[in-house]
Amino acid sequence: MFTYYLELALRSLRRSPGLTALMVLTIGFGVAASMTTYSVFRAVSGDPIPWKSSKLFVPQIDAWGPNGLSRDNDGEPSDALDYTDAMALMRDHRAKRQSAMYQVSPSVVPVQAGKHPLNVSGHAVYSEFFPMLDAPFLYGSGWNADDDAQRAAVVVISSKLNEKLFGSVNSVGKTLNIEGKDYRVVGVLDNWKPQPRYYDVVNSGGFNEGVEDVFVPFERAIAVSMPNDGNTNCTEIPKESGFVGLQHSSCVWIAYMAELDDAAAVTAYRQYLDGYARDQQKAGRFSWAPNNRLRDVPAWLDFKKVVPSDTRVSLLVALGLLLVCLVNTVGLLLAKFLRRSGEIGVRRALGAPRGAVYTQFLTEAGVVGLAGGVLGLLLTGVGVASVGLVLPKSISALAHVDLSLLSLTLVLAVVATLLAGLYPTFRASRVQPAWQLKSN
Amino acid sequence: MSMQIKPILAALHRHKAGTVLIALQIALTLAIVCNAMFIIQQRLAHLSEPTGVDEANLLVISNHWASQMSPQQTDAQIRADLTALRQLPSVRDASPSDGYPLSGGNWDNFIMRTPDQLTPTTDASVYMGDEHMLDTLGVKLVAGRNFNAAEVMQMAPRQVVIPPVVIVTQALADHLFPDGSALGKPIYSMSATPSTIIGIVERLQRQGVTTWNKPYAYESLLWPLRQDGSYYIVRAKPGQLADAMREAPKALYAQSRMRIIDSKDGGSYPQIRERAYDSDRGMAILMGIISVVLLAITAAGIVGLTSFWVGQRRKQIGVRRALGATRGDILNYFLTENLLIGIGGVLFGAVLAIGINLWMVTQFEMARLSLAYVAVGVVALLLLGQGAVLGPALRASHVSPVEATRSV
């Protein structure tokens, strides 16, 4: 029976090619616009570390107080830590794993003669950074706590830098000249490029085209005065000059992440942070009550508004376009179905139940939806491929077509068209056989 | 026309579903297109804001040192670099700097009128350069004087230096001293040490132009500091920018190879503008594409549904023609019918457009929709409707009176 309806549908669609083409185009464009913007939204709003994000926390400590000249005056503590607080948290070591970190941009001098020195970006971190974030290694591994303590001259590099400097061989044990000093390569990361760069949102702004090329031990970087290349926010100008002056100041420039496995650990850590702030208050360093935050990665990304509002607006506007397309399709299907009132009258008079009319016309709507979906697939492919022309590279590069996007496109097209076909089909099924036969 | 409205309304009553669908489509289209156009206008206005510098002839070179040097060595190297740059035949002037307009935001300080103020008066983008900075940028001094060579101080990395003199933009001067008395007054930049305003420049855009910077647009200050420069700003002689872009890096490498010139930062102003505003431009294009598709689909929908109505009513049209209605009457009938539906649609659409905008204002950093956009949108959609209906209506007007005698 279904094949018969399918045949009827195709015949009917062929009879009015203009109207059919218009409906297919409408569905195709509406679905493609929605899916293209959705592919971008999906890319930027995804969880960068879904298996662990609810266990990774960013602590915030109010080091400036209510009178601090904070940017937004919203009562929130600053979004990074000053050196004193970051070091206290590292020393107390209350989480399962934790790392203070700051962004660096050292120069690397290639061993090959005649090559220009390179500027690379990276972070100064503690040894627990790598296991905490499940950073994948191609060769070797991170360093250990002893290296942290001894300020060892070791470095973890990206596979990209490895390729550039050592020609994609295992470079573990080799030497790298960073800012004029030799570092031993202990690990090569396996194309690790989390987007958004959730471990330091403040400095990456979330999305970043580049790969982080070097990771060096935090205390080593401090000892050799490797300057901070990220944001520095101050409520007053440091009293002393130089990098040491920054470390002694209340300027905030250090990102921090802690791994807490269960609710009890989170509660304990909150209490610890409040206790720490209260101690600081007692000691006279803070003249205000504790004002701390402890957000997990999803909450932190949300708080930092990592998903650009443009992406949301685009998705909403595209969904609006889809809605208009659907209203349009309802109108066109209505016109198409009711034009065949005579045919329906004859079928009904010959004994076809309402259900048969429903099946017939919804099949027709489904065929339109499927055709629109196929066109939508093509247009979505074109759309995703060309978002780079319109959106910043750091974001557009993340959008991609995959099986789930393709199936979603088809399903959306068919379901949307079936929904659009419901009312016209209902009207068609209400056609009075007697009236139709009489009027002719 | 007026005599026709009653029968049209009666006919529409019999086509409730189709009427409502067209009106709804017009309403939604109006609501979305108004907001999209408003977004486009806001973005275009933002990205065409002038920087105040001589963009046509400027080149920004991002320079990092590849070897560790003492502050004295660095300063000597910077001076040597600047001398080399200024001697190039294609170069008019050059200055060291910590940043450049539209760089994306490097350094900004809170500014106070008194040293013990708890809340800052405003925030200024901080530019550091030497006595060549004003000429290099090509900004116009409207009051006071430029720095002299003796005032330029050296600043090692992260050294805390508050120069005793400062040049501010007109916007900053007006914000701090609305009575126009800025020249000669001290200002405090997150420090108890005053800087006295010795000059005012007409316009110099901030380094950052994101939403956060908006309340402080064009509020910038210049300090006579030669810091461990991250940038050299080079002003080419008129028409010689291409030469300067070729010669400058060569001249710098000739001074020392132990440097890294970052090609992804700085460059010429067309390149800088593209980077600074790429998301704004992208958003404007995207909204434009969606609006065009939307209008096309709505027009096509009107054509489709009206054609159906014309087909359905051929017999009635024939009867009317046979009873003496002219072609013009039939044409008018369909145009008026569409106009009535359109008016219903745009009324609802205007309310919807404003409602959507008010909601977006609360959700996203967006301005209030100006009513002019709604007015233009209303007219545009009514015209679109009339244009779309013209084809089917003309076809209807060509229905011959004989049609009345035919059975379907």
Which stretches of chain B are poorly predicted, pLDDT < 50 over at least 5 residues? none
In angstroms, what is the radius of gyration of chain B? 32 Å
Low-pLDDT stretches of chain A are none
Order of helical and strand elements of chain B:
HHEHEEEHEEEHEEEEHEEHHHH
* Helical amount of chain B: 40-55%
Chain-averaged pLDDT of chain B: 89
User: What would you call the structural class of chain A?
Assistant: alpha+beta
Features:
heterodimer; A: 440 residues; alpha+beta; 12-stranded mixed beta sheet; 17 helices; 13% strand; B: 408 residues; 8-stranded mixed beta sheet; 5-stranded antiparallel beta sheet; 10 helices; 13 strands
Structure description:
The complex is a heterodimer of chains A (440) and B (408). With 440 residues, chain A is α+β, with helices and mostly antiparallel strands. Chain A has 17 helices and 12 strands. In chain A, strands 1, 2, 3, 4, 5, 6, 7, 8, 9, 10, 11 and 12 form a 12-stranded mixed beta sheet that branches. In chain A, helix 2 packs across helix 14 and helix 2 crosses helix 16. Chain B has 2 domains: 171 residues, no CATH class; 191 residues, no CATH class. Chain B is elongated and about 105 Å long. Helix content of chain B is 50%, strand content 17%. In chain B, strand 8 and strand 9 form a beta hairpin. Chain B is built from 10 helices and 13 strands. By secondary structure, chain B is α+β, with helices and mostly antiparallel strands. In chain B, helix 2 runs antiparallel to helix 7, helix 3 packs antiparallel against helix 6 and helix 9 packs antiparallel against helix 10.
Give a topology summary.
The complex is a heterodimer of chains A (440) and B (408).
Chain A: H1 2-15, H2 17-45, E1 56-60, H3 83-92, E2 97-104, E3 107-109, E4 118-119, E5 122-125, H4 129-132, E6 137-140, H5 145-150, E7 154-158, H6 159-166, E8 175-178, E9 181-189, H7 201-204, E10 214-217, H8 218-223, H9 242-248, E11 255-259, H10 263-282, E12 293-296, H11 297-303, H12 309-338, H13 341-349, H14 354-386, H15 393-396, H16 403-429, H17 433-439
Parallel strand pairs in A: 5-10, 7-9
Antiparallel strand pairs in A: 1-11, 1-12, 2-5, 2-11, 3-4, 3-8, 6-9, 7-10, 8-9
Helix pairs in contact in A: 1-14, 2-12, 2-14, 2-16, 12-16, 13-17, 14-16
Chain B: H1 2-14, H2 16-47, E1 58-65, H3 71-87, E2 91-97, E3 108-111, E4 122-129, H4 133-137, E5 141-144, E6 153-155, E7 165-169, H5 170-176, E8 186-188, E9 194-201, E10 220-227, E11 231-236, H6 241-255, E12 259-261, E13 267-268, H7 269-312, H8 314-322, H9 327-363, H10 371-397
Helix pairs in contact in B: 2-7, 2-9, 2-10, 3-6, 7-10, 9-10
